[in-house]
Amino acid sequence: MRISVLADESGRIVATLRPAEDAGRGPTDVHMRVGAGQKVHNVVLPEELAHLRSLASLHETHRLVVTAQGARLVPRPRTLTAA
User: Fold this and answer.
1) What is the pLDDT along the chain (83 residues), one digit of tens a residue?
2) Alpha helix locations (H) across the chain?
3) Does some domain include residue 45?
4) Is position 54 within any domain?
């Protein structure tokens, strides 16, 4: 499945949009407001993330990497907290 990801130049995910499964039951014309230094990318949602009911968790767990081959989601490095 392909999703739309709005990200800034550093790869931080600002917004995500999954296509509507049934166009008759929801909005069919949705837009993302792109700010300075941001861009919308259409990326493949990795199989291991397809089970997510909400894409909101991607904002904290993943970032977007853009290369000449295209854009893809990658896990963000985990930060260690002092015990």
Assistant:
1) 899 999 999 999 999 988 776 556 665 677 788 999 999 999 999 999 988 888 888 999 999 999 999 999 999 987 766 65
2) 58-61
3) yes
4) yes
Write down the pTM of the prediction.
0.79
In a domain, 81, yes or no: no
Amino acid sitting at position 73: L
Domain that holds residue 22: 2-75
- Residue 57 identity: S
Any idea how long the chain is? Answer: 83
Cβ-based burial of 3 (10 A; exposed 0-12, middle 13-18, buried ≥19): middle
Does residue 14 lie in a domain region?
yes
* Domain total in the chain: 1
